[in-house]
């Protein structure tokens, strides 16, 4: 198995102010030595480490983690995709094979952020260097995301956390309609991650997620879904084993080949691990 989405950080309340009191379970540091035994216990052989802060210093730190710890098979970092020296910065990562792609925290931006031509052009340049792009949005930003995706048919794109539908309040129709339209773009994958944190932290049940997974299976199929834990953020609502069990149980009816795609092969293929 590959866990295609997790984070590390050295906690302080200023730089991690987004971790509010409702997320007290993760108001502390999480480092490679904390995750490695959990992955081993759950039969996960490798992982993808994803950016948290929007600065290139974190890229350097995460690449050092990946070089030191064999289980980290790749890094999704951050780069200023609207910078005039973007090409120069991308060239600088060409001798760092563990850097697989980039992400911007669009969920923290205005809802129309992905309409910006200069940002779209920056993401387009990633294709020239064989880098992926992770789309991190809330459900309300799906309209902009669809426009964005339509401009980038050559890029390898993946939507993190199934686009964060409001599972707690059973929001479905608008999300499903946009996801169906997005699925027509064969270069777009979906990261089946972060779902427990969109539900009621304390009172979710696994069946809450099944209707969303039903739609993803119908629209994208097992060849474009990729498992990720979103550890340690998931810990505000579920232990690592609990979030994994939701997905293992749901996908247990598929063939072994299809399960292997979702939990391993698709991540290797998408991120070139």
TrEMBL record:
Short name of any one Pfam family annotated for the protein: Amidohydro_2
Domain of life: Bacteria
Sample GO molecular function, one term: hydrolase activity
Domain Amidohydrolase-related as annotated: residue spans: 2-273
Keyword field contains Magnesium: no
Signal sequence interval, chain numbering: none
Keywords attached to this entry: Hydrolase
The keyword Hydrolase is annotated on this UniProt entry: yes
The protein, known as: Amidohydrolase
Organism of this sequence: Jiulongibacter sediminis
Species classification: Bacteria, Pseudomonadati, Bacteroidota, Cytophagia, Cytophagales
């Amino acid at each position: 198995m590959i866990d295609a989405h997790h984070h590390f950080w050295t906690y302080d309340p200023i730089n991690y102010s987004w971790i509010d009191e409702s997320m007290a379970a993760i108001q502390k540091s999480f480092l490679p030595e904390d995750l490695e035994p959990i992955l081993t216990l759950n039969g996960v052989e490798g992982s993808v480490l994803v950016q948290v802060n929007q600065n290139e210093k974190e890229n350097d730190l995460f690449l050092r983690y990946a070089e030191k710890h064999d289980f980290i098979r790749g890094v999704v970092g951050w780069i200023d995709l609207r910078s005039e020296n973007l090409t120069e910065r991308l060239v600088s990562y060409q001798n760092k094979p563990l850097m697989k792609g980039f992400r911007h925290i669009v969920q923290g931006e205005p809802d129309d952020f992905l309409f910006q031509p200069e940002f779209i052009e920056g993401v387009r340049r990633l294709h020239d260097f064989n880098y992926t792009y992770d789309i991190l949005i809330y459900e309300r930003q799906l309209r902009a995301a669809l426009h964005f995706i339509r401009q980038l048919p050559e890029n390898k794109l993946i939507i993190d956390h199934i686009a964060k539908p409001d599972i707690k309040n059973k929001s479905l129709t608008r999300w499903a309609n946009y996801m169906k339209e997005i699925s027509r773009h064969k270069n777009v994958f979906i990261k089946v991650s972060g779902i427990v944190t969109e539900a009621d932290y304390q009172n979710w049940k696994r069946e809450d997620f099944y209707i969303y997974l039903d739609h993803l299976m119908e629209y994208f199929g097992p060849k474009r879904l990729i498992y990720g834990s979103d550890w340690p953020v998931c810990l505000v609502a579920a232990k690592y084993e609990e979030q994994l069990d939701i997905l293992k149980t749901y996908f247990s009816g598929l063939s072994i080949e299809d399960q292997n795609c979702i939990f391993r092969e698709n991540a290797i293929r998408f991120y070139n691990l």
